[in-house]
Amino acid sequence: MPDTDDHQLYQRAVAVMPGGSTRSTLFVAPHPPYAVSGKGAEITDVNGHVVIDCNNNYTSLIHGHADPEILQIVSEVAAEGTAFGLPTRYEVEMAETLRARTDGIEQWRFCNSGTEAVMMLIRAARAYTGRDVIVRFAGSYHGTYDAVVSPQAQGVPAAVSETIVEVPQGDIDAVEQALIHHRGRVAAVLIDLMPNRAGLVPARVDDVARLADLTREHGALLAVDEVITFRLEHGGLHTRYGLNPDLISLGKVIGGGFAVGAIGGRAEILSSFSPLSDGAVAWGGTFSANPVTMAAGLAALRRFSPSAVRELNDRGEALRTRLRDNGVDANGSGSLIRLIDDNPRALWWKLYEAGVLTGTNGLLALSTAMTDEHLDAIGDAVITVRNQMSD
Ligand code: PMP
């Protein structure tokens, strides 16, 4: 595969961006290929190489690329203006849609990324409880806000780290100990019910039930980060657990391919953001809830009905079963699959060359744009590459 164009672009990138990259999460050494276009389930790169897209912009493109219906709606809405210093009806419709899908999470606020959603969620929890400490699980990724990156990360003030308690992944005893040790100081326990970076293994039902009891008992909020997992059920993965989170963060699929984030929660918790309330938490966001994003997201979600969610999950289960039956270590649930490998970079490149784009840590996210032929080809490529690598 010739890489001259890639190489030239990367040389230019290195001169103007650190490491030639503006998204560390998608960097693969020596440098990633550059995308040119996407249509449905496929992407063409600058070298003319075509791949089946199992990355789907890190799980966010539920209907693949350049979906005709979403494009149509986006062009109609954009033709009327892309952003206003006034609210539009689209944000109201989106909040109503999310409330209906989540079985009544009462109030919503929008922003432009999952990182920003988690940031707002933590602010809301602290404002409502009047407490500072956030308990979260090591190994779960929640974006790049100070409070959710590694306490050892450069650039995070010690004062921030002092308000964070990181417990081992899935260790509910450690959560209980933290709640006892920091009695009266824990604002929220933050959980991703199927954390990608930690291996994409769904949380155990009894652990989640115990977590809900513990948070209630200690007056801490239960905050569920559904930025990735919302796609797994019509109302998000928490509905599978029968859970009523106090706060939830969303992103990715609810933007229909555009930059988005959202938080939802009980009205009394989100009331801190109300411009009508005393001591309101000031929160604007120049492009928050812009009509293009909201309309694209509404169009994407409309087509992601309970039966469409189920169908995509079933196809994911079938692919995962096929992979496991052929000796491939594959975690996940429904439409999200994680390949477990000691050498994710080599696996990424070999799969890319074989025509399949994954996340850099082996994550595959299916889209409704995939045909049975695509799914067969993905399975063939993964099985062949894994066999080659273990030879
Ligand atoms: N939370 C989770 C669970 C995520 O997976 C991510 C990003 N992959 C984020 C938050 C941050 O979202 P964003 O990249 O949109 O800032």
TrEMBL record:
<dbReference type="InterPro" id="IPR015424">
    <property type="entry name" value="PyrdxlP-dep_Trfase"/>
</dbReference>
<dbReference type="GO" id="GO:0030170">
    <property type="term" value="F:pyridoxal phosphate binding"/>
</dbReference>
<dbReference type="InterPro" id="IPR015422">
    <property type="entry name" value="PyrdxlP-dep_Trfase_small"/>
</dbReference>
<protein>
    <submittedName>
        <fullName>Aminotransferase class III-fold pyridoxal phosphate-dependent enzyme</fullName>
    </submittedName>
</protein>
<dbReference type="InterPro" id="IPR005814">
    <property type="entry name" value="Aminotrans_3"/>
</dbReference>
<keyword id="KW-0032">Aminotransferase</keyword>
<keyword id="KW-0663">Pyridoxal phosphate</keyword>
<comment type="similarity">
    <text>Belongs to the class-III pyridoxal-phosphate-dependent aminotransferase family.</text>
</comment>
<dbReference type="InterPro" id="IPR015421">
    <property type="entry name" value="PyrdxlP-dep_Trfase_major"/>
</dbReference>
<keyword id="KW-0614">Plasmid</keyword>
<dbReference type="GO" id="GO:0008483">
    <property type="term" value="F:transaminase activity"/>
</dbReference>
<keyword id="KW-0808">Transferase</keyword>
<dbReference type="Pfam" id="PF00202">
    <property type="entry name" value="Aminotran_3"/>
</dbReference>
